[in-house]
Design a protein that fits this description.
Chain lengths: ~90, ~425
């Protein structure tokens, strides 16, 4: 098994996935603490595509009831990192 | 041998600019393969072929603006062995018309016509090309006159816009790298005038304006609205999604699309084209999905045969389509052939939407957001999730009575989501 990625690595992977969903977004301009659905104008299809991308990249399956826990970049990185420790 | 021509990519498109060939002379191609990228006011479009065969020669050059119907390439029919002399990459930029075409194999026409027979590649970049590049990167490379082969890919081996721009910048600094002309490109890419994002958005805005103005000028719209209790659909989805991995999960929007496609079976006057003064119903149901682009503008590419596909399949195709459209590329088969369109503005928070029909189609169904309402069922008032469904339909093809039956059919289908 490959070693667990660090939170910084998780952040990079998450941003890469986001880039495939929304290539026109300048990831440097994202405020990591603000709800990105509003900030980036993502709709429910984008969000599901994003979660599928995170799943494919990191192998983390996120149950539907946990979606609210991924509402910002910071929260998403925290959540995914925590899930990967399991 | 057949001439491959610039396909029509919708009634409102006359020209496209060839950005890149993804095949070269001598390549064998199969039905459904993507052979080129063409830039249009609707965005970058992946051009598919509909016959098996072999590329004889590429007639059009990257950077060239081509009218619909202009010859792009010569393709020998059949997937058999390459015809000896003709396949050699001799420097013949313009093919002289050859009198003896390669006879097509008789089995050719016997192939099943269904699109589902040949699964399309999910990413053109990964399968048909030596180099994986994002569609936006391809467009940028064509604009800057950068050969993708000369670009060093970034993370994951994929070429992105930034990699192309870096390559262009370093090329400008260094002495012009001597690109050994490879066998195929007898056609050289003339650098195009770089187009700004604003110009692109403005061009798309003109396309939308032309189509919508034509619609409002020519189509006598009528509008209906019906509120639908989506309680059964929402709770069914919640239960289903709990059992499913994220890759199999579904959204209400896919359920709505499927219900619309099945309702068409009951009221076929909603599905088809009004052309040459008459309504032509169409048997297959290709649902156009209105997808807003964050940078401005809108496209409504088609999901094919939605009525015949399982819901999970519809959902996956919708995810893939949205991702590709927002990532900058649509396939030629998707852009032109929707038979009815659905627009969902619920994510934007509006209660209802009354659409403008996309000609030559004759109907557009609009869905708003889910709102909890006081709702009477069997004489009891309860709180139910309710969605507004609307129909904009063409009075030349149908009347309000039939339109009402159509929305009622959608409602009825949504009460039994497990049957969809």
């Amino acid at each position: 098994m490959s070693p667990k990625p660090t939170p910084q690595e998780v952040r990079e992977i998450v941003l890469r996935v986001l880039h495939t969903i929304a290539p026109e977004i300048d990831v440097a301009s994202i405020d990591p603490s603000v709800d990105w659905r509003d900030q980036l104008d993502l709709d429910s299809v984008d969000l599901l595509n994003f979660l599928v991308g995170v799943h494919d990249a990191l192998g983390v399956d996120i149950p539907e009831e946990d979606y609210p826990k991924l509402s910002s970049l910071d929260r998403c990185v925290d959540y995914v990192s925590a899930r990967m420790q399991d | 041998m057949a001439e491959f021509r610039m396909p029509s990519l919708g009634a409102d498109m006359d020209y496209g600019t060839l950005v890149e060939w993804t095949v070269k002379p001598g390549d064998h191609i199969r039905r459904g393969d993507i052979i080129a990228f063409v830039d249009t006011d609707k965005g970058l479009i992946e051009i598919e072929v509909w016959e098996d065969g072999m590329v004889e020669s590429l007639v059009a050059a990257p950077g060239q603006k081509l009218a619909v119907g202009a010859v792009m390439a010569m393709i020998a029919a059949g997937g058999g062995a390459p015809a000896p002399a003709e396949a050699l990459p001799k420097p013949a930029p313009i093919p002289s018309p050859k009198p003896s075409p390669v006879p097509s194999t008789p089995s050719e026409k016997a192939r099943p016509q269904s699109r589902m027979e040949a699964p399309l590649p999910t990413t053109a970049a990964a399968t048909t090309l030596g180099r994986a590049a994002s569609p936006l990167a391809r467009r940028r490379a064509a604009e800057l006159g950068v050969e993708l082969a000369a670009v060093r890919p970034g993370e994951g081996g994929i070429i992105r816009v930034a990699d192309v721009e870096r390559a262009a910048a370093s090329r400008a600094e260094a002495a012009p790298a001597v690109e050994a002309p490879k066998a195929a490109p007898s056609v050289q890419a003339p650098p195009r005038e770089p187009t700004t994002a604003e110009q692109r958005t403005a061009a798309m805005r003109r396309v939308i304006a032309a189509a919508m103005a034509r619609s409002k000028r020519e189509i006598p719209h009528y509008y209906l609205e019906h509120h639908i209790d989506v309680g059964p659909a929402v709770s069914w989805l919640t239960d289903e999604n709990r059992k499913r991995p994220v890759t199999e999960r579904m959204l209400l929007s896919a359920v709505l699309l499927k219900a619309v496609a099945l309702a068409v079976h009951e009221v076929p006057e909603m599905n088809g084209y009004f052309v040459d003064g008459a309504f032509r119903p169409i048997e297959r149901v290709h649902v156009g999905v209105a997808i807003a682009l964050r940078q401005g503008g809108l496209v409504a590419p088609a999901l094919h045969d939605v009525d015949r596909k399982p819901l999970v399949e519809v959902m996956k195709e919708m995810l893939d389509l949205t991702k590709r459209v927002r990532g900058g590329a649509i396939r030629s088969s998707e852009i032109a052939d929707a038979t009815i369109t659905v627009t969902s503005l619920g994510d934007q928070g509006v209660e209802s939407v009354f659409g403008v029909i996309y000609p030559p189609q004759v109907a557009l169904v609009g869905f708003g957001k889910i709102i909890e309402r006081a709702w009477a069922v069997d004489g009891m008032v309860g709180v139910r999730p309710v969605v507004s469904s609307s129909l904009a339909a063409d009075h030349r093809a149908s009347d309000g009575h039939r339109g009402g039956r159509f929305l009622a059919a959608i409602d009825r289908l949504l009460q039994r989501p497990e049957k969809l």
